[in-house]
Design brief:
This protein has 474 residues and is mostly helical. Helices cover 74% and strands 0% of the residues.
Length: 474
């Protein structure tokens, strides 16, 4: 597979920064050189800027793992019982995402018109951190509402985080930097899981301190993207108008028309609805599945999930390298093939060893989906409509995040009393069917080549590698 993407040479024609002491290119295997070598991936040449962008993945995956994947499901089940707890947990998360799905194209298009993606990112980051911090101090109803608000904000922030990749990374290096970001994200999950265990009670159960810890870690590690990353604007942003925002629901139809004008783009986003359904559902319910279907305790489940995240970390770097070598579509198809295998194993055999094997397969693919499908969208989307198309991209992913968990939760609620653990197998196999449909649709999506002119333009980018002042976007 070659050297990790973060250590590979930058695009041809770019003279990489060299070590001050040795004069060696920043691709040799020394710790300080490794960090500076990130500059070869950045449009500005700044290692700090590339690292700050990737570190936000570290920050927000702390929330995704600790709250969505682990804490909330068992917390709801303890309060409401296995069937009802699973259902209302998935319902709260899904309704929040449904609302987010309705406004995602509008939010993306508004950021294209007004600029200031970092400002939008800050608003929704705060909107996730604050509700997360108070969940443990509330009763089950208010706690589920706070979780829904936090999940809404987390999903909305991803629109602006993903679209900032074009401001930070050179076109030929987006796969590697994206892979580094996703890998750091799962590393953040390991760190949060380790610290999370220190905040549980004597029985290993979640406490109010656990929620405060997760919110604090998210806030701390999100700071660098707002301090260091520079948003590059091709033209001054248009002023924000309330009337325009209220009338922007019409943007949905316009966004769909714009997507239809690009060969393969609309088919890709529809395919994404089907293949992200199992992915989003697995993120939400994996801990519940490990506890209630396979028989792990909460402490054991957390430990197993950390092991599987290690696999995801290593795989994310590999998928990023393959995306740059194979192209995002071919790599994405390979990723989804691993998901088909993993879901089939989980749906057939409910046993601890099989769960760990299947979980490792799914974990490796989880990082791959995050790395590759946003790169394929960047290939397909017109440069002046990236934010708008990321809004549509987010819309279909979020709709799948509504359908999948509710489908899963409903199957468990209806079938668990009669089928016991068999209900979990039916739920997993329903997700497998959706994944197969997504793969079938994706196969017919064209993959435009990486533009040589675009890469050359990025290499010629005259903007210096400077760090903007706190709170400012030059």
């Amino acid at each position: 597979m070659g050297v990790p993407g973060c250590l590979r040479a930058p695009p041809r024609g770019y003279d990489p920064p060299r070590d001050d002491a040795s004069g060696a290119p920043m691709t040799v295997l020394a710790p300080a050189v490794w960090w500076r070598g990130l500059g070869g991936m950045a449009r500005s040449g700044s290692s700090a800027e590339a690292g700050a962008w990737a570190l936000y993945d570290f920050a927000n995956t702390i929330f995704s793992f600790a709250i969505v994947s682990f804490a909330m499901g068992p917390w709801a089940v303890r309060a409401l019982g296995e069937g009802p707890g699973t259902f209302f947990f998935t319902l709260a998360g899904s309704l929040a995402i449904l609302l987010n799905a309705a406004v995602s194209p509008v939010l993306g298009a508004m950021s294209d018109r007004t600029g200031g993606r970092k400002t939008y990112l800050l608003v929704f980051t705060v909107g996730c951190v604050l509700p997360t911090a108070i969940i443990g101090f509330l009763d089950i109803r208010a706690g589920l509402i706070a979780f829904a608000i936090a999940n809404f904000s987390y999903q909305a922030a991803l629109i602006y985080y993903d679209s900032l990749l074009t401001d930070v990374a050179r076109p030929a290096s987006r796969g590697r930097l994206s892979g580094i970001g996703v890998g750091l994200g799962y590393l953040g999950s390991i760190v949060s899981a380790t610290l999370y265990g220190l905040t549980t009670d004597a029985d290993g159960l979640t406490t109010a301190t656990s929620f405060v810890l997760v919110a604090s870690l998210f806030a701390i590690f999100a700071i660098p993207i707002f301090v260091i990353v520079r948003e590059r604007r091709s033209a001054p942003g248009a002023p924000f108008r309330i009337g325009e925002a209220l009338g922007s629901w019409r943007q949905m139809a316009e966004t769909l028309r714009n997507a239809r004008r690009v060969p393969g783009l609309l088919r890709f986003v529809v395919a994404r609805f089907f293949y992200t359904d199992p992915v989003n559902t697995a993120i939400a319910v994996m801990s519940l599945f490990a506890i209630n279907a396979v028989g792990f305790s909460e402490g054991e489940a957390r430990g197993v999930l950390v092991i599987l995240i290690v696999v995801a970390v290593l795989a994310s770097f590999g998928w990023g390298v393959l995306a740059d070598r194979w192209g995002p579509k071919r790599t994405l198809l390979a990723v989804l093939a691993t998901w088909v295998v993993g879901l089939l194993l989980l749906g057939i055999i409910l046993e601890r060893t099989t769960f760990i094997i299947a979980g490792a397969i799914l974990g490796s693919g989880l990082g791959g989906v995050a790395v590759t499908d946003r790169l394929l969208l960047l290939r397909l989307a017109p440069p002046d409509r990236i934010g708008e198309m990321f809004g549509l991209f987010g819309l279909v992913g979020k709709l799948s995040a509504v359908v999948g968990p509710i489908l899963y939760g409903t199957i468990i609620l209806v079938l668990e009393p009669s089928l016991d653990r068999g209900a979990y197998q039916v739920a997993i196999l329903s997700l497998l069917a959706l994944m197969v449909v997504g793969v079938w649709m994706l196969r017919a999506v064209p993959e435009p080549p990486l533009s040589g002119d675009e890469d050359a333009g990025a290499l010629a980018d005259p903007e210096p590698a400077i760090v903007p002042p706190v709170g400012g976007t030059p």
